[in-house]
Design goal:
The protein is α/β, with parallel strands linked by helices and 417 residues long. It contains twelve helices and 18 strands. It has helices spanning 51-54, 98-104, 151-154, 209-212, 218-229, 245-257, 269-277, 291-299, 313-318, 345-351, 365-377, 396-404; strands at residues 59-64, 73-79, 86-96, 114-115, 119-127, 138-141, 172-173, 181-182, 192-196, 200-202, 238-241, 262-266, 282-285, 303-308, 323-331, 354-357, 387-391, 410-414. The strands form four sheets. Strands 3, 5, 6, 9, 10, 17 and 18 form a seven-stranded mixed sheet that branches. It has a six-stranded parallel sheet with strand order 13-12-11-14-15-16, with helices on both faces. Strand 14, helix 9 (313-318) and strand 15 (323-331) form a beta-alpha-beta unit. Helix 5 (218-229) crosses helix 6 (245-257). The chain is globular. It binds zinc ion (2 copies).
Length: 417
């Protein structure tokens, strides 16, 4: 990997897999359709609680982006009550993902003012009349919003939903009634959110919120890239480019799936040490002239799967060089919109290589979250170790700066109750 591709410093990170769609047809686009709950189809409906009773004040403190590249400002906004299948969740924790930073810097556009934040967990405090959640339930909040009706949803790929947008009038406004964009259908840099019930997954109440929130993006993006997108089989060899928050989860996904060799590639020994703690069998420093040769020497052959978690177009130029014949590159890290990477079609065609894009780990919440929660409880999935530091909402700009500097695995905003 070239030196121009710092794994974690370059936004967006893979979790940015959600970048492609969310602001297309945003709050500016009028789409008024029902959003059936696809992620909790096996959940028994619970009695709806009057939204107006639970959402007493109707106001919420949120970190608002008013200018790309500027600091977020803490403001009091109005948060309307949930309707239909929507649910209000009072947040316990929200992690900072590189995608939030990319959005706040303007890398992917979108309306302003906006509230980012999409890796959250909390407790249900109000629900619309058709919602399948009730007060007091512990949930994670994700940006995976799916219609449940289109061909992609019907074939088990809700992250590729053709019609994922919510109602035109999002739940957030200024006190004067001005539009505020609920970015990524979450707007979770705030004390509470109103989202579609299909974006939620239940978690055990004893799970700490600061731990659980990581399941909403970084964990499913990394593990899902290996298990769902690549379909890794036991005994295969894996290279993971970038050992940041998502890369570490790709590494532990490969360990859980039974990979033979798991080779982490990153720029610093500290990151490689992190990688080893999450299950990497070997590490290669990325700043040597041909790191793929070092990786192949370890594996004795090319990799069956290379997971690229780096948000740098330059990194993508080299990833096929790590592959064995018929190997797969899984593209998780998302460079800024418009950035291009060259490949050699002849080499890929001759070798039978596959290039696979992976957004949100091709996750199906109802299937994957109970699985991951069980692994965590059995001690087979590391979550607590992903938290670098805890912050308050009023420290969010410091927390973002720390994440942007590339040192953190995950910085988590914790809401005191
Ligand atoms: Zn994310
Ligand atoms: Zn759909």
């Amino acid at each position: 990997m070239p030196e121009t591709a710092p794994p974690d410093a370059a936004p967006p990170d893979p979790a940015g897999s959600h970048a492609a769609r969310p602001y297309v047809g945003s709050a500016e686009t009028a789409l008024d359709h029902a959003l059936p709950d696809t992620a909790n189809v096996d959940a028994a409906p619970v009695a709806a609680i009057p939204a107006s009773a639970a959402n007493k004040s109707g106001t919420v403190t949120a970190a608002v982006c008013r200018a790309f590249g500027g600091p977020l400002t803490l403001e009091t906004l109005r948060l309307r009550a949930p309707r239909g299948t929507e649910v209000e969740v009072t947040l316990g924790a929200v992690a900072i993902c590189h995608s939030d930073i990319a959005f706040a810097r303007g890398a992917w556009g979108g309306p302003l003012p906006a509230v980012y934040g999409h890796e959250a967990a909390g407790t249900v405090t109000a629900a619309g009349p058709q919602a399948k959640f009730g007060p007091g339930e512990s949930v994670i909040v994700t940006l995976i919003r799916a219609c449940g009706q289109c061909a992609a949803c019907a074939s088990g790929a809700p992250v590729a939903c053709a019609d994922p947008q919510g109602p035109a009038d999002g739940p957030l406004t200024t006190p004067e009634g001005g539009a505020v964009y609920q970015a990524m259908a979450c707007g979770a840099f705030a004390e509470r959110v109103v989202v579609d019930g299909g974006q939620l997954a239940r978690i055990p109440p004893e799970l700490a919120m600061e731990t659980a929130c990581l399941l909403s993006c970084g964990v499913i993006t990394g593990i899902g890239a290996v298990v769902n997108s690549a379909g890794l089989r036991a005994g295969q060899d894996v290279v993971v480019i970038g050992a940041g928050g998502v890369g570490l989860n790709a590494i532990q996904g490969a360990r859980i799936a039974g990979a033979r060799r798991i080779v982490a590639v990153d720029l610093t020994q500290a990151k490689l040490d992190d990688a080893a703690a999450f299950g990497a069998t070997d590490g290669v420093l990325a700043d040597v002239p041909a790191p793929w040769q070092a990786a192949m020497a370890i594996m004795g052959r090319g990799a069956d799967v290379v997971i690229c978690t780096v948000g740098s177009a330059a990194a993508y130029r080299d990833v096929p060089l790590y592959l064995s014949a018929r190997g797969k590159v899984v593209m998780v890290g998302m460079p800024p919109a418009g950035a291009m990477a060259e490949i050699e079609p002849m080499a890929l065609a001759y070798s039978g290589h596959r290039l696979i894009g992976s957004r949100m780990g091709d996750t199906v919440l109802a299937r994957d979250i109970p699985w991951l929660v069980d692994l965590y409880r059995q001690g087979r999935l590391k979550l607590d170790e992903l938290v670098s530091r805890r912050w308050r909402l009023d420290q969010i700009n410091e927390a973002i700066a720390d994440t942007a500097a590339g040192h953190a695995r995950r910085n988590v905003i914790v809401f005191d109750r």
